């Protein structure tokens, strides 16, 4: 039996291009009919590891971090909404939208891995944040998302108080940083080659076709 193509997706829950990138990759995999030949694992990357518990208004955050004006932000969000529509994903930007700390979300994604539920939980988290105006750092919101994914929410939430779980996620982030990952999404194939950014579907198809042929 052929070995599966291992795909590591280094990303953050609140990264819009990570969502677009995955949805395009997913379409490429589906179009090529190789769903049973790939193994996807989500790897943690915090865009804002120092974000306080209360979060920060998205407009303020973007102005502070990137120096972007209101006009630039509006144009960027419109572009993102259109890109989302192309892959059947809804981006709902609103005035009081807040960027939040995502460490807890990454701990839960690590927990979901053992049940084969990582991708499902990842998409529920990103949809909650971008489409449903939910705070994905809020424990009650996280509990509902875990339940929606068919996971044991109470067991999963205990991981958030577990120092070992927090350290493991931080160590994983450092591992990818040491390998040179500085932006997300970074999509790594068989831990040998990588593609950064939300590439077009055709680019993913070409990369996947070549790698499947090689294997």
Automatic annotation (TrEMBL):
Lineage: Bacteria, Pseudomonadati, Bacteroidota, Flavobacteriia, Flavobacteriales
GO MF term list: oxidoreductase activity
Listed name of the protein: DsbA family oxidoreductase
Organism of this sequence: Gelidibacter salicanalis
Record-linked PANTHER family: GLUTATHIONE S-TRANSFERASE KAPPA, THIOREDOXIN SUPERFAMILY PROTEIN
Position of the signal peptide: none
Record-annotated DSBA-like thioredoxin domain positions: 7-208
CDD domains tied to this protein: DsbA_FrnE
InterPro entries given in the database record: DSBA-like_thioredoxin_dom, Thioredoxin-like_sf
Pfam families: DSBA (PF01323)
């Amino acid at each position: 039996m052929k070995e599966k193509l291992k795909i590591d997706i280094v990303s953050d829950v609140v990264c819009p291009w990570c969502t677009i990138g995955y949805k395009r990759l997913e379409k490429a995999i589906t179009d090529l009919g190789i769903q049973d030949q790939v193994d996807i694992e989500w790897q943690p990357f915090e865009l804002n590891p120092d974000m306080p518990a209360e979060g920060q208004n998205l407009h303020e955050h973007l102005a502070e971090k990137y120096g972007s004006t209101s006009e630039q932000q509006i144009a960027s969000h419109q572009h993102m909404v259109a890109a989302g529509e192309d892959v059947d994903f809804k981006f709902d930007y609103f005035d009081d939208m807040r960027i939040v700390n995502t460490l807890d979300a990454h701990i839960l994604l690590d927990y979901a891995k053992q049940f084969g539920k990582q991708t499902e939980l990842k998409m529920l988290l990103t949809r909650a944040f971008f489409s449903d105006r939910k705070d994905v750092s809020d424990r009650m919101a996280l509990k509902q998302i875990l339940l929606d994914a068919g996971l044991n929410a109470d067991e999963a939430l205990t991981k958030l108080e577990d120092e070992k779980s927090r350290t493991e996620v931080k160590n994983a982030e450092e591992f990818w940083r040491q390998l040179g990952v500085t932006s997300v999404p970074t999509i790594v194939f068989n831990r040998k080659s990588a593609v950064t950014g939300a590439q077009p579907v055709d680019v993913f198809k070409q990369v996947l076709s070549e790698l499947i042929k090689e294997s």
